[in-house]
Automatic annotation (TrEMBL):
<feature type="transmembrane region" description="Helical">
    <location>
        <begin position="74"/>
        <end position="94"/>
    </location>
</feature>
<keyword id="KW-0812">Transmembrane</keyword>
<feature type="domain" description="N-acetyltransferase">
    <location>
        <begin position="104"/>
        <end position="240"/>
    </location>
</feature>
<keyword id="KW-0472">Membrane</keyword>
<dbReference type="Pfam" id="PF00583">
    <property type="entry name" value="Acetyltransf_1"/>
</dbReference>
<dbReference type="InterPro" id="IPR016181">
    <property type="entry name" value="Acyl_CoA_acyltransferase"/>
</dbReference>
<dbReference type="InterPro" id="IPR000182">
    <property type="entry name" value="GNAT_dom"/>
</dbReference>
<feature type="transmembrane region" description="Helical">
    <location>
        <begin position="49"/>
        <end position="68"/>
    </location>
</feature>
<dbReference type="GO" id="GO:0008080">
    <property type="term" value="F:N-acetyltransferase activity"/>
</dbReference>
<dbReference type="InterPro" id="IPR050769">
    <property type="entry name" value="NAT_camello-type"/>
</dbReference>
<protein>
    <recommendedName>
        <fullName>N-acetyltransferase domain-containing protein</fullName>
    </recommendedName>
</protein>
<keyword id="KW-1133">Transmembrane helix</keyword>
<keyword id="KW-0808">Transferase</keyword>
């Protein structure tokens, strides 16, 4: 569970470097990041199965035709090496795809100016931990805090719905109840927004744990989609949760 030194508050401008770092970690480099999970999932998809078969064929050729100085031997080595080569190439494509996505979001998307993009009635929350106690402050006379998790709520006035975005947790602080606590804070805030009908979100096949969390907090599956990516189609689950808010004027 979250400790007494950990609490949730709305985003402040000086959080930007840590939020960007957490975003990069959660999608690309962190233990259990979306990119790393995607690499593991694609080990069982068609391109990788083909690579395994090629390597098996190469091993069979070398086993039954062990003449390394002839065409059969060369072919066997080529086939055997093709499996790992394809695996490395696919992992590199996935890694670069996530790097490109993160760079685009940081430079041009909602993460460029969080305060402006998530201005009221939207919101952006962070779970932070005090570092060094209440007496330790930075050069701006602010308490030193470590950002452990974050989530955004993007409001669409036309449809009277809100979208959960950028739900990311530091790998070193998972399984401590922060995710559920942060989402409950977001739900409570959403219920205070006048005229909001529902909260929607999308989560991919690479984030099955997140889907279980959302469903446990009242979200229901709305539809399933397949979205193209640079490394194949990705299954996306769209979920929706009704909220009780103040009536519109």
């Amino acid at each position: 569970m979250a400790g007494s030194d950990t609490y949730i508050r709305q985003y402040r401008p000086y959080d930007l470097p840590q939020v960007h770092g957490l975003f990069f970690e959660g999608l690309v480099t962190g233990r259990g990041s979306v990119a790393n999970f995607a690499k593991c999932r694609f080990l069982l998809k068609a391109p990788m199965v083909s690579a395994y078969l090629l390597s098996l064929c190469g091993a069979a050729v070398l086993c039954y035709l062990p003449h390394y100085d002839n065409v059969a031997g060369v072919l066997g080595f080529v086939l055997l090496a093709s499996g790992p080569a394809i695996c490395i190439a696919i992992r590199r494509v996935i890694h670069n795809a996530f790097l490109g996505y993160v760079d685009q979001v940081l430079q041009q998307g909602d993460m460029r100016d969080i305060e402006a993009y998530y201005a009221f009635p939207a919101a952006f929350f962070v779970a932070v931990r005090r570092v060094g106690g209440d007496d330790k402050k930075d050069e701006n006379n602010e308490k030193v805090e470590e950002v452990l998790r974050m989530v955004g709520l993007e409001y669409d006035q036309k449809t009277h719905t809100a979208e959960v975005r950028r739900m990311i947790v530091s790998a070193a602080h998972r399984r401590r109840g922060l995710a559920a606590l942060l989402m409950r804070t977001l739900i409570t805030y959403a219920e205070s927004v006048r005229g909001l009908d529902a909260i929607e979100l999308g989560t991919s096949e690479f984030q099955r744990g997140a889907r279980r969390l959302y469903e446990g907090l009242g979200w229901e599956l709305k539809k399933t989609e397949e979205e193209p990516s640079s490394f194949g189609k990705v299954m996306i689950w769209r979920l929706r949760r009704k909220v009780e808010t103040k009536k519109r004027k």
